Amino acid sequence: MKNVDFLFDYASPWSYLADATLSRWFAAGQITYVPVYLRGFESFTSGVPYSAAKMAYLLKDMVRSAAHVGVPVAMPPVFPINGLHALRGAIAAQWEGRFAEYHAALFPAAWREGRDVSKKEVVAAIAREVGAPSVADALDEPSIKETLRANTDRGVGRGAFGVPSFFVGDELFWGHDRMHLAGAAAKV
Fold it and tell me: Which residue intervals of the chain are DSSP H helices?
């Protein structure tokens, strides 16, 4: 089994759907979680790069896709989401050895519970709720900010252009609908 880098942003409904179905395609311990800032990718630097019609379709398709694979979803009251603080928290949680608890709370907070994870105080509250107050306190640490920037730049440098992205070695698989291909490549 090959290791798989999973590039994600809590702002992405497709990353949420991918995260919720990882175990269908990959073995436990096979995934390396790599928080990346979607707004750091070229096509997203000035906001969501879709027309109103395409955005409406994508949101409807997300609900349809989630239902198809049995993943509960409730579109957030504020969209698009800015995942910056949530991603910084993920890096802090990785460093603190609290990533599993933190990560398990963040996607559902955004995509099922309607919590606005764009807000630093909401992310800090979630970190405290899962027993990781040091994560809440680290959201503005310069080293955390730099690591998120480096993760994003490294992902772009490897060829990623959005999330979710999966790397099996140097091979990129983009989108939740290509996870079966990434899973097959990771078994070789």
Answer: 13-20, 52-69, 84-96, 99-111, 120-129, 133-137, 142-157, 179-187
Do the Cβ atoms of 185 and 171 come closer than 8 Å? yes
CA distance 89 to 47: 22
| Measured distance CA(141)–CA(88) in Å, rounded | 9
Alpha-carbon distance of 94 to 79, in angstroms, equals 26
Is residue 113 within 8 Å of residue 62, measured between CB atoms? Answer: no
What the block records as the tokens of 150 is 């480096």
Q: What is the pLDDT of residues 143-184, one digit of tens each?
A: 999 999 999 999 999 999 999 999 999 999 999 999 999 999
Query: Quick one: how far is CA 175 from the chain centroid?
Result: 12
| Single pTM value for the model | 0.94
